[in-house]
Amino acid sequence: MYMNKSEALRSIVEQASNGDLVFPTNVNASLKIQQALDDPDCGIETAAKLVMTEPLMSARVVAIANSVAYNRFGGGVTNIRTAITILGFNTLRSVTAAVVMRQLSAAVSHPGIRAQMDALWRHSAYVAALAHLIARKVSKVDAETALFAGIVHEVGGFYLLSRAQEFPALLEIDSNPPAPDALAETDETFIGRAVLNKLLVPKRVVSAVEALWYGMRVMPPETLGDTLLLANELAAVPSPLDPRSPESIRQSASEIDFAVGEGTLSSILSESTEDVESLTATLIS
């Protein structure tokens, strides 16, 4: 029986309320790694053994350790243990979350939905790289946490797209979405929060994503939520779930600038293009 978008969302909300979020088998394996990383007794050796059980995750860990943003050792990292030592567990959690979203996409056979998920991942990777940069050079919040927040900020959208073969109406985009309301809980935000909790995302990061949902922007950015929101606004790659036109998004981004120390946000972004593009490409590949 065909369901409209509202009915499809309500069905998934009911499943989420009962703890019945549906993930492919390979995603469940990655979630077990995420859970192990939260164990205070998990050391580098244990983490390395866990990561090596997932080839995609192993490749991503080494690639990110060799990216410009982390390239303190000349780009010569060739093994998992050294890569984890360089990145740390916070960034390793980010890599795990990134792999989960790639696995969600890989489990979808419909080419149109796969294309949407690929576009959403390119957007997420760009936001993550920008958030990492803005945290380091502007807001001074923890950069690795900002990277993680950028990676997972659209995880609810990924999950809904992964269910779109079952519920085709989920692909419909609202042409007149309601204005953000900090007091309003929508079906999409309920599902997004449920998926974040399933991924064991820390409360601080969940709060930052919620700030993005509800549009609480402060300029210059001071908090993790401000940092994430600014990165999302500046992202050169728009989300396919954003109802605004690409031209409108670009115009909005071009109008954002402010003083940072003796420079400006614009000058920082210009000087750090290579860092952002390198980290984005590493996450996407």
Structure, explained:
With 285 residues, this protein is an all-alpha fold. The protein has a single domain (24-284), classed as Orthogonal Bundle (Hypothetical protein af1432), CATH 1.10.3210.10. Helices cover 64% and strands 1% of the residues. The chain has helices at 5-17, 25-37, 44-51, 55-65, 80-106, 111-139, 143-152, 155-162, 187-198, 203-214, 224-234, 246-254, 265-271, 273-284; strands at 259-260, 263-264. A two-stranded antiparallel sheet has the order 1-2. Strand 1 (259-260) and strand 2 form a beta hairpin. Helix 6 packs antiparallel against helix 7 (143-152), helix 6 (111-139) packs antiparallel against helix 8 and helix 8 packs across helix 9. The radius of gyration is 18 Å and the shape is globular.
As a percent range, the share of strand residues is: under 5%
In helices, the fraction of residues equals 55-70%
Please identify the structural class as seen in this structure.
Answer: mainly alpha
Strands, count: 2
CATH homology-level superfamily: Hypothetical protein af1432
Shape descriptor reads globular
Order of helices and strands: HHHHHHHHHHHHEEHH
**CATH class wording:** Mainly Alpha
**Named CATH architecture:** Orthogonal Bundle
Strand order of the largest sheet: 1-2
Low-pLDDT segments, ≥5 res: none
Largest sheet entry: 2 strands, antiparallel
C-alpha Rg (nearest Å): 18 Å
Averaged pLDDT, please?
87
Straight-line N-to-C gap: 38 Å
Number of helices: 14
CATH T-level fold name:
Hypothetical protein af1432
Q: Count the domains.
A: 1
